[in-house]
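Customer ticket, subject: "Can you confirm the structure for Protein Wnt?"

Message body: Hello, I'm evaluating your service for our small team and ran a test protein. I'd like someone to confirm that this is what the system normally returns, since I don't have a reference to compare against.
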Amino acid sequence: MDRVFRKKSRATKHYLLLLILCSSMAALQRKLHVTSKKVSPNVVNSVISAYKDAFKNCYKNFKYERWNCPVPQAFSHINTPVSLTYTYPHATKETAYVYAIVAASILNRIVRNCRQGVYQDLTCVKHSINGTQSNQDESFSVNISNALKLVKRIIKIFDYKYVRDEKRKAFNWNNSVIGLKAFTERLTTVCKCHGLSGYCSSKTCWKSSLSSLKETSVELMTLYHGAKKYEEQHQQSDPSTQSTNVMKNFISKDVPNSSVLVYLTESPDYCKKNSSIEVQGTLNRECNHHLDDSCKKLCSSCGYRKHSFVKTIENMQCNCKFRWCCTVVCEKCVSRQISSRCSLSTLR
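Agent reply: Thanks for trying us out. I re-ran your input and got the following:
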């Protein structure tokens, strides 16, 4: 009887916690909806598109990891930016990666849209006195500078300002800045010559951001694998300086520089399903059949077995030929390939 009562008590407590969390999220979303009206609609749309870009790249990189970057339910159908803090309540290194890639993705969208003239109400590109665009490389530097300011403002408006815990604030900000830094360092300079008969009498240069998000997401994977846990430094007793100290000391003692993702809590067991933290587990997940390490990580190391099967892929393009002029015609083929997934160790 006492055991039954304890179970009911735990269930009631769990229900109340969920109720409080849902109520808090609903209140936050109402605040975010009001806040989003203070930001240009074009910018809001860019942020929403950036979320999609971020999770697309994140999933590709983590496809064969135990945590495969599933898209949170809150991001499935959104029309206003969503707070990452409430979506990812646990400050693990996976959450650190999400903050970094989302920040980089927002910057990527803002920069591209600035160059395309989407934001008529923002100062994206520097112009000379006579109204013509000045040196492209210089103007793009201003573009990047203004874009960085805007992205940091967006992060503060839609997430940072609603966080009460100082350590979590520092966690959010540190990893977002690392994402912005990784993105800007990957931008490449592209130049175009102007002149008769191919003579380069003048040259226009600018920074290209068309493919840097993918490269940034891969670089952030390296930082993810080398993420460091935050070790609390000695803080001053004066409460007024506590926030500043947390921000300044938010880095592990053995980290040689600031280009590192930092986390607060250890990652949970991603092998087994845990609905309370939206962990799906690795059972029935596909692993890379051609890489033994991939299937070992997802299957055998998690207590499952590797089950190989033949996958049929229909309507694949094949036997493509160039037709003058100027189209490519392909046939539709059926392809069969060996794939593997994680199954229960014993068949029933």
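A couple of notes from the result: The radius of gyration is 25 Å. Residues 320 and 330 are 4 Å apart (CA to CA). Feel free to reply with more questions.
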